[in-house]
Write a structure and sequence with these properties.
Length: 494
């Protein structure tokens, strides 16, 4: 059991009730620490609030995946007819937005409840208040009614995450929504303008189009900045084929509400220096997120942040103040992913209270973009591999492929593509794997484990695939870009 330092109320206070903070708190309690968790959700500009659990549970991964699944089921209705299912008047089948959002929110609320019960069962004190530092060992919780509660702790973990960024565009704050709002929107979004072409923007536009709503994406610079750009091009082409409208090299200038209730969006094409306009029912901003550190009164504790974005540049999750730590999206230069925060939080708790020495490894973290055709990746992009090792030192194996389930409904396979980036020198260590196609998230997970075990191309080529699956395509790769050979498959079973 971890002894409580006599001058403090707790061994650990965690500020933030999201995935990383909760994982850290639970692990610390398992190791005998006395723990309190503070969590408070300020409403979005639209007024949306939610319960305990952080972004992932409430307005991130979980509702996003459910909406994505709803859109995939719509596509499956069309496929089903080709497979012999008799569906009366398929053209009249529509999604009920209210029923969908109610189902999604019911699930989210059930997770909120389970999380509360879990904290109670583990005897973690939950404080529904906004945490602010008084000093390096004291946190003030400002409650909803304005009252304050003071907590002292030997160690403090900052795990407040982030919220969507709204640019300084006239009408944006008044009329636009963000991913904080879309999953509980009380009316169907209708024709939607999505500002931003990162993974959140693509995912939202993708499931909206799949649910039957017109979707336009304003792309400031490139699609999926930070991801492999060849794969980003495949996703863009697939979304264009699905009917998503892309406006490239465009930035919004203003949003005005018309007398008919529509939102008039004016944007500028930065290449042609021309203005364009269109009316929408909904404008959704997906232009990045900012760390929620400015309300923490960090100067009182002496914690330093990166001035440009308010993030914390921590070494092994430890800030410049020795007893104050940070996990999750508030960290500078770390993947903003839920499983990263969870794993880092658990490892941190073990180091603080379990005499562990294991540090978080932020390299080769797998992720998936849940666009209409999914994109899973782990390791370096082709561009970054070239930057790091030089073009002459790497080899890229690539291939198009034909998912068996696409044959009968005759779905387009032109963007089903994968590649493996390796060092050229034998045994050709794998630097990155990239996959665009169905079930990409499920597929890339196993290969991420292989990457942790120093996967090589020799091992991959000598791995027997499961036939007929799309995952086996990684084991069938044999054509390099440098060879100039056609990467299109010649046959299915030979």
């Amino acid at each position: 059991m971890a002894p409580i330092a006599s001058q403090y109320d707790y061994d650990l206070v965690v500020i933030g009730g999201g995935s990383g903070g909760l994982a850290c708190a639970k692990e610390a309690v398992n190791l005998g620490a006395k723990v309190a968790v503070l969590d408070f959700v300020s409403p979005s500009p639209r007024g949306t609030r939610w319960g305990l659990g952080g972004t992932c549970v409430n307005v991130g991964c979980i509702p996003k995946k459910l909406m994505h699944q709803a859109a995939l089921l719509g596509e499956a209705i069309n496929d089903a007819q080709a497979y012999g299912w008799k569906i009366a008047s398929p053209e009249t089948i529509q999604n009920d937005w209210s029923a969908l959002t109610e189902a999604v929110q019911n699930h989210v609320k059930s997770v909120n409840w389970v999380t509360r019960v879990d904290l109670r069962d583990k005897k973690i004190e939950y404080v529904n208040g906004l945490g602010q530092f008084k000093d390096a060992n004291t946190v003030i919780a400002v409650m909803k009614n304005g009252s304050k509660k003071e907590l002292t702790a030997d160690k403090i973990v900052i795990a407040v995450g982030g919220r969507p960024h709204y640019p300084n565009v006239p009408g944006a704050l008044e009329y636009a929504i963000s991913s904080d709002d879309i999953f509980s929107l009380d009316t169907p979004p209708g024709k939607t303008c999505v500002v931003g072409a990162g993974y959140i923007g693509l995912e939202c536009a993708g499931f909206l189009k799949g649910l039957g709503f017109d979707a336009t994406i304003l792309v400031r610079s490139v699609v999926l900045r930070g991801f492999d750009q060849e794969m980003a091009e495949k996703i863009t082409n697939e979304m264009l084929d699905h009917g998503v409208n892309f406006q490239f090299k465009c930035i919004p200038k203003s949003i005005e509400k018309k007398a008919n209730g529509k939102l008039l969006v004016t944007w500028i094409n930065t290449e042609s220096d021309t203005e364009q306009q269109d009316e929408f029912d909904t404008v959704l901003y997906a232009t990045g997120r900012y760390a929620l550190t400015k309300d923490l009164n960090l100067p009182a504790a002496g914690v330093e942040v990166v001035p440009e974005n308010g993030k914390i540049d921590a070494i092994n999750e430890q800030t410049n103040v020795s007893n104050i730590y940070a996990v999750g999206d508030v960290l500078q230069g770390r993947p903003e992913l839920t499983p990263v925060a969870i794993h880092a939080g658990r490892l941190l708790a073990r180091r603080m209270f379990g005499n562990s020495k294991q540090q978080m490894d932020y390299d080769n973290v797998a992720t998936t973009v849940f666009s209409p055709i999914e994109y899973g990746c782990v390791g370096l992009s082709e561009d970054k591999a070239i930057q790091k090792y030089g073009a002459d030192a790497i080899e890229v194996y690539h291939s198009y492929y034909k998912p068996t389930e696409y044959f009968i409904p005759q779905r387009s396979i032109k963007n089903c593509f994968l590649k493996t980036i390796t060092l050229k020198e034998a045994p050709q260590k794998v630097l990155g794997l990239h996959f665009v196609g169905p079930h990409a998230g499920e597929i890339i997970q196993g290969f991420a484990a292989a990457m942790k075990c120093n996967l090589t191309m020799e091992i991959l080529m000598n791995t027997v695939g499961i036939h007929p699956t799309v995952a086996e395509e990684f084991t069938r790769l044999n054509i390099t870009k440098s060879s100039g050979k056609d990467p299109n498959p010649a046959s299915c079973c030979s």
